[in-house]
Amino acid sequence: MNAWTAAALVLLAVPMPAYLWVVARGTAVRRLAGAASLPAAVGAVFLLLPQGYGRPAYQDLALMLAVLAPAGTLVFTRFVAGRRHETHPTHHSSTET
Asked: Is the pTM of this model over 0.90?
């Protein structure tokens, strides 16, 4: 184990449980923030591991994650919000006469 893989292990061991805790048990805004910041930590791990293993071509995975993660978070939240709206419809009283 070299310094690069040790840094990746620290990134996996320290912030990941905190992010997962926030995503699992938080308010809606905190869950969204946790879901949006989790790929940043994973991307950092995906940048450190190729350096540790001497395989710079594997950094492409981190770059793809950086591009696709924000869009994936938005699609996921839109999907969850749509499902919640379908299962718990709000009843609006009609004020038209």
From this structure: no
Map the chain to HEC letters.
Answer: CCHHHHHHHHHHHCHHHHHHHHHHCCCHHHHHHHHHHHHHHHHHHHHHHHHHHCCHHHHHHHHHHHHHHHHHHHHHHHHHHHHHHHHCCCCCCCCCC
Distance CA 77, CA 31 (A): 10
Q: What angle do CA 75, 33, 78 make, to 5 degrees?
A: 20
Q: Average pLDDT across each block of 10 residues of the chain; the chain has 97 residues. List them in order.
A: 92 88 85 84 90 90 89 82 61 55
